[in-house]
């Protein structure tokens, strides 16, 4: 039975959307996001694939997302159906899912289970069940934990290949023939045929940049914001980051003129998106132009060494009240290890500029639990953050370090949940009354780490964990049962449960 509250919420959301592409086509697929609606509509990648499908002749998609009210409760998850026509997920010929990061694999399993679709591809009947196609940011690092569930996975930048794959699926009725045809397309991973051998990462032609989002809505995490790329990739070489200069040729920029001409005249809030937005050579001019037009501006990434007086002044004119940038590591030694350009002098200047331009606070993101980190590094962070707080109020946003595949730090171990929690407490205690310090969960960071470094077997453990309640205890138990471990002799494979 459909919940009246949920149906009313969906109607309200559809009514509030600006820019939705209403279209019917002979071949309509379920464009799925394994997180709630607000996150889906704030994902530029998801929205870019939506637009690519809806603008293609003979193809259309309807959106399916995880139910907000049952995000962490499988029993409460209502039968997934599309937002547009309320068609049940299992009635679509293809489920095309965008997976942003490792924990969302659990969300995909919840959607499949709630639809009575066998989660494991080996258990699905191609005559009765949808074809499951995956893509998204996770594919740039390690899509192998997705392999037990997906018939095919597009690796890398997918907006061009997705349409090609859907046309193959539309024109090829037999499942075996579909897999064979898709396996011949560059950058498409077919687990049944390729095993664990991944293809190279796809790269779209530069003329397809920038991506921009079709839909604006007040119900997105980035409320009523028009999202558009300023660049794709990055020219820097940060050792922990998947989107570094060696990924897909580094940074590819859109021109200022192209960016501005694509922004709708009625968009009051504009989000400039990319891995290195502040490295765009025209970024100050872009922000000032948007501020002159009376628009509020948000940027997805600000590097402290790029924040000049003119830049921060432009941000203030664009509505910034908190200057947010990255400290990255807790000490100069840790930042040098990460090959970050952020120095203490840059961060001090950021605090001074935030104060000068009337901002409420300086927010700094950083990681702890880095390789070779010690309490001395945490104490240095306390000392330096205290110094910054004398200039401008400071808030720290902290994430435990998780090594990712396809980075120079691939294979580095997880510091340990207890180690991370002790360092967090040391940091909070040292900064009490001076700065706010908030962190994502060390326990869930460990789960993310195991999946980031894992393979299909770790993916199967997610299935077990989700069906066992989906809490941390369930994940810990499922990972402890793995028949293979992350091997101490090889940096990538160490005993997973020992990292707790």
From TrEMBL:
GO terms for molecular function: catalytic activity; iron-sulfur cluster binding. This is Radical SAM core domain-containing protein. It holds the Pfam family Radical_SAM_N2. Residues 220-434 form the Radical SAM core domain. PROSITE patterns: RADICAL_SAM. InterPro entries: Elp3/MiaA/NifB-like_rSAM, Radical_SAM_N2, rSAM, rSAM_horseshoe, rSAM_sf. It comes from Labilithrix luteola. SUPFAM superfamilies: Radical SAM enzymes (SSF102114). It comes from the Bacteria.
């Amino acid at each position: 039975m459909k919940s009246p509250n949920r149906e009313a919420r969906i109607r309200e959301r559809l009514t509030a959307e600006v820019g939705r592409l209403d279209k019917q086509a002979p071949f309509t697929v379920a464009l799925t996001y394994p997180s709630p609606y607000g996150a889906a509509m704030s994902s530029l990648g998801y929205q870019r694939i939506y637009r690519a499908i809806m603008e293609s002749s003979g193809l259309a998609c309807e959106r399916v997302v995880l139910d907000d009210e049952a995000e962490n409760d499988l029993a409460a998850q209502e039968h997934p159906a599309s937002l547009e026509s309320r068609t049940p997920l299992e009635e679509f010929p293809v489920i095309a899912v965008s997976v942003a990061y490792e924990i969302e694999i659990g969300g995909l399993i919840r959607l499949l289970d709630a639809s009575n679709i066998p989660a494991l591809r080996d258990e699905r009947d191609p005559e009765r069940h949808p074809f499951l196609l995956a893509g998204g940011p996770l594919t740039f690092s390690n899509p192998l934990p997705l392999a037990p569930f997906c018939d095919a996975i597009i690796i890398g930048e997918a907006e061009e290949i997705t349409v090609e794959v859907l046309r193959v699926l539309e024109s090829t009725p037999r499942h075996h023939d579909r897999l064979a045809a898709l396996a011949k397309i560059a950058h498409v991973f077919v687990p049944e045929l390729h095993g664990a051998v991944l293809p190279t990462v796809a790269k779209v032609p530069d003329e397809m940049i920038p991506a921009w989002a079709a839909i604006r809505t007040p119900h997105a995490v980035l409320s009523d914001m028009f999202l558009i790329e300023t660049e794709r990739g990055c020219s820097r070489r940060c050792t922990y980051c998947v989107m570094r200069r060696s990924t897909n040729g580094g940074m590819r920029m859109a021109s200022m003129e192209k960016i501005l001409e694509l922004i709708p005249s009625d968009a009051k809030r504009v989000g400039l998106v990319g891995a290195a937005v502040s490295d765009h050579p025209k970024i100050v001019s872009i922000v000032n132009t948007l501020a002159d037009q009376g628009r509020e501006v948000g940027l997805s990434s600000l590097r402290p060494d790029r924040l000049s007086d003119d830049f921060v002044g432009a941000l203030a004119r664009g509505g910034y009240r908190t200057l947010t940038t990255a400290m990255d590591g807790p000490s100069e030694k840790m930042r040098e290890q990460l090959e970050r350009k952020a120095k203490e002098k840059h961060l001090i200047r950021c605090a001074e500029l935030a104060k000068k331009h009337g901002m409420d606070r300086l927010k700094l993101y950083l990681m702890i639990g880095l390789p070779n980190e010690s309490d001395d590094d945490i104490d240095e962070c306390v000392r330096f953050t205290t110094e910054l707080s004398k200039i401008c109020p400071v808030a720290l946003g902290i994430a435990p370090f998780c090594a990712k595949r396809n980075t120079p730090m691939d294979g580095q171990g997880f510091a340990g949940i207890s180690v991370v929690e002790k360092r967090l407490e040391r940091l909070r205690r040292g900064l009490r009354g001076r700065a706010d310090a908030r962190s994502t969960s060390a326990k869930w960071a460990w789960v993310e780490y195991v999946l980031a470094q894992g393979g299909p077997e770790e993916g199967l453990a997610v299935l077990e964990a989700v069906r066992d309640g989906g809490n941390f205890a369930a994940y810990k138990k499922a990972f402890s049962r793995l028949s293979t471990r992350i091997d101490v002799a090889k940096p990538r494979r160490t005993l997973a449960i020992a990292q707790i």
